[in-house]
Amino acid sequence: MVLGVTTVMAQDNPYIVKTKGVKKTVAMTVTNGQQEEEEEEEEDATDFMGKNFRFYSMCDWKEGMRFMVIPEKYDLLVNTFHDAVTDREVSSGLLRHKIMVYRGHETLPNGRVHVLFSCEDDFKRYYYELPNGTFEDYCYSKMGVPTLAYLGDVDKAREVLIDQPLLTRTQTFRVDTEYDGDGYREVTVDKNMLVTVKAVGVGTRSYPVKIIVEDEIGNQFYQNVAMSKTNSGMRDDEFSLDKERFLFAGSFEFMGANMSVSANIREYLNKVVHTKYVVSMSSKGSGKLRDIRVPRFSGFIIDEITPIQNSKYYTLTLREVESRRIYYKDVVFSEDDLPSGDENLREDFFGYTFGMGEGEARSTSKETRAAIREGRVIPGMTKDEVEMAMGEPFDKTHDAEGNEMWMYARSNDVILDVWFDEKQGHVVHAKARKATESTINLSKALKNKATQNARNARGMMMRNATPLEEIKIKE
User: Fold this and answer.
1) Per-residue pLDDT tens for 271-281?
2) CA-CA distance, 254 to 38, in Å (whole number)?
3) 422, exposed or middle or buried, with CB in 10 Å at 0-12, 13-18, 19+?
4) At the N or C end, where does the chain have fewer CB atoms within 10 A?
């Protein structure tokens, strides 16, 4: 993935943290309040944000609030601040990484409004002139003061997050490439990976809190996130799609449900699995959960594993590989944990219902996979693929040339004949026909045999659910 890197402080500024270098940031002492939070059973991201990170519009700013100047490319062309003594513009580049302390605002006789600051670094006074309107008109907007990253969020995040274990909720993070600059490269990591917060510093104006985390083998990476969104200049609706990861909950999750499962079960997170049989799952449609019969041979990625209270079951959150649709399935990971006496619950056993990886999908065409999932037979299928789609036939026979035919009982006394080319072993054609009385009796007799297993029964259920017109295939 990424090479192991070391968190450092740059230029003796504790707010500038990097994922490379030689000196680690010293973790701040945890307060009593934080210790109380750690004693809670689990932390919800929504409660965490509400308790710790309040949004302040400019109307709510209090004197003494601290910000850091983090200019972006545009800010180097259009200066933000004026020197309060000389009234001259000051280059944003010269003010980079300087800490500005809010000192209120003033309205001049000409109607212009100045937002006032003092600088902790050079002890000078500066102001930002509002482009238009009154302070009251301006302060309710999300625009704020350009270049300024709110340090109140950074300080609070450092207090409550240092050394906290988290889970990654996205796969895209960053690694620093410049000690004195803002260069970075994006890296891809596993979703739901266990990481520990190693340092918190300043990010950008839009995403002020830089959170550096380390995985279990020492690799470090970071994300810049907006916590309260104070002065971020971003509207709520702008945090969507790829930008969602720049919210804390878009990149990280507390050690909640996923982490309360054992380590051997957590190993299934992010793994690709496929259904061995037709199986019942739940999926959201029009905002409501509904039960769906998912075809065999469907591929999924396990996004989450959530234990169900007072039971041995877990809810899997499954993302279909091809459609990206989300499904849910309650399972147990040991067959001994299944409720006794109900054979129908066997599909709740993870090992019975799911196979690891994409299964036979790797060696079949997209068209064939679709037919298998729909319980259909198409020319060119191998015998294994026909069995995956239809189950075991109730009878097999050969013609005079040695070509093999499999017979499947359908609903309404219909028989499906599937013919194979004996040399190639592939389906030549399949044809539905009206069953004779002797064929019907043979089918019934075989189904009543003690050797008929649950797999054949499920295959018959699949076949009965497929209309006749779906199985007709032209030669």
Assistant:
1) 889 888 888 89
2) 11
3) middle
4) C
